[in-house]
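Bug #77: duplicate submission created two jobs. Keeping one. Sequence:
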Amino acid sequence: MTGVGQTVTTITDARIPVGITSVLSDQPVDVFLEGGLIADIAPAGNIRARGETLRADGAWLIPGLWDHHVHVVQWALGAQREPLGHASSAAHAAAVMGAAPVLAGHRRIGTGFRDAFWSDPPTLETLDAATGEIPTYLINADVHSVWVNSAALRREGFASDGSGLLREAPAFEISRRLNEVNPAVGDALVSNMARDAASRGVVGLVDLDMAWNEEAWVRRIGGGFDRLRVEFGIYPDNLARAIAEGLRTGDPARGAASDLARVGPFKIITDGSLGTRTAASSHAYPGDPHNHGMLTVQPAELAELMTGATGAGLACAVHAIGDVANSHALDAFAATGAWGTIEHAQLVAHADIPRFARLGVGASVQPEHAIDDRDLTDSIWAAQTALAYPLRALSDGGANLLFGSDAPVSALDPWAAIAAAVFRTRDGRPPWRIEQGVDAATALDASTHGGSAAAARIEPGAIADLALCERDQRAASEPELRAMAVAATFLAGRLTHLA
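Kept job's structure:
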């Protein structure tokens, strides 16, 4: 009986959406796999099935999906942490954490709060009153700030301004420390994450954990991890080491038992975020005329870092959310000859939209963020003249769109990203800035490894990374896309998920 882990050689009675295959109709076909590749496609029943066969029964076969921006360990550890997305105020969030379970290491950890929506400010006094002497950490939904109590400040050796809020670099340092769990525990949670991702048709992801990721992935693969392809990022603190050790984007992880893990991009965070009000923007934030956000890496330093990475064979993934940060990032790509992506591109000046395509810079974007942030954008960025979440503008300008989740900021779910990109809404609300939505075919292409400009196809010779879905995404409604059932997922023809 066919099951997860087996290699399939024939998929019978599948339909393939027109446009992602050389087949010119969506009538049922049989797909033949050999050596991890698609060997042949024929009208259903015209060629005898061979080897291990999976019946599709008319389901839709698409290329396997990728999430181009995941913080793997932090996303996986979310299963242990207290969810705070429902917290309606600072007092409410503090009360929730006061009742939260104490985790290993004698601390409480919550995640997903959005203080930009709160009427009361986070204060050390409020959090201390609710949580006492147990070190307590609340991670913002955008991970660019962490609210901690006095016990946590003492434990971590940080000073406070009275709010208990740590922003940007100090917040990232706290997250790094919280992610340093027992590898056996962390790897088990990562394995669960991968199983869930495969059940959604995901075959690969870009891991941008703030760590030296090669060793972790070699360990996981040695322990049996085999459900996803992974491209892992490198951060500035480790750039010199990566160059000295000869890591180049695309190379397999050294010492790994398979080639599932490969070197990914050099990741640089150049500004803050919308929710923390630190994204570097041309117009000030409301009520704070001197606050235009912050550049966490100055242009000269950015160019120097990118030059070093590019010369060593590393692609660059530049975090830029505000329009000022995006302009500087594009300038650096132009000046250095670097290749790679801008991560997020949430607020982009009109003049910068065509520069993505002209410079060959991919737009690695997270469509669900637009839906999560629609109310913040309409308030905090109301005075901005640049384009917010400009998917359609970037696509029309020829940019290569690459979709992701930024998990744990949004859930690792490509169907949610596709639904958000096409329909620009969720939960029955009216569409938000629908003129920046893209069509379903573009959204699906952007969710494959090559992105919208170099999308995966189903044709002889292509790698057999595939997903078998209940519906044609081109005709699905927004709720249907979000609830998309995946019957099977294949990694080079091997089943990683079977419903």
